[in-house]
Amino acid sequence: MTPTILVRQDDTNATQSCLEALGRGGTIIFPTETCYGLGADATNARAVERVYTLKGRPQEKHIAIACSSLEMARKYIRVNADVRALAHAFLPGPLTIVSQGQSFRIPDHRFTLALISQFGKPLTATSANTSGAVSLYAIADLIHHFDGLVDVIVDAGDLLSRQASTVYDVDTKRVLREGPISLAQLRRALNAAQQ
What angle do CA 23, 26, 27 make, to 5 degrees? Predict the structure, then answer.
């Protein structure tokens, strides 16, 4: 593996470094509005397998995708009226929507949204940590854990420690993971959309 490239998010070559790594099936660490994410081309099976290996994540645990828009998401998951209502109300933001077993989110981070849009395909949307361990918010911790293991680390500074995104299944109407957006807020948005 080539040495990890560390780039500041505002460096002129940051996006290009990420695009090159993703294009060759590599892995990157990118900022979101919650924590840092571990990204790869979500349409490349070998790249996704690398993410599972890096995290030590069980294969039966699905990995969500990060999209730049609802239009991109609809190519990969079923988008119904509930998905549209929740996306309109909360995305980009800390919500992962599950529809027919597939899940996606639109991160509320300028650099990452632009990167996904330029890449033209979704990235894996999973926290940059070992499966079951705490999420990482400090650049020093990310370098300690992932230097030499990923292709690029995008340095957006130390992030504030925030809850991971709420995960909501539109088919079962259940919150699968508690997060910044409550079930009451989700229900209000769904009810308002049906008025």
Answer: 120
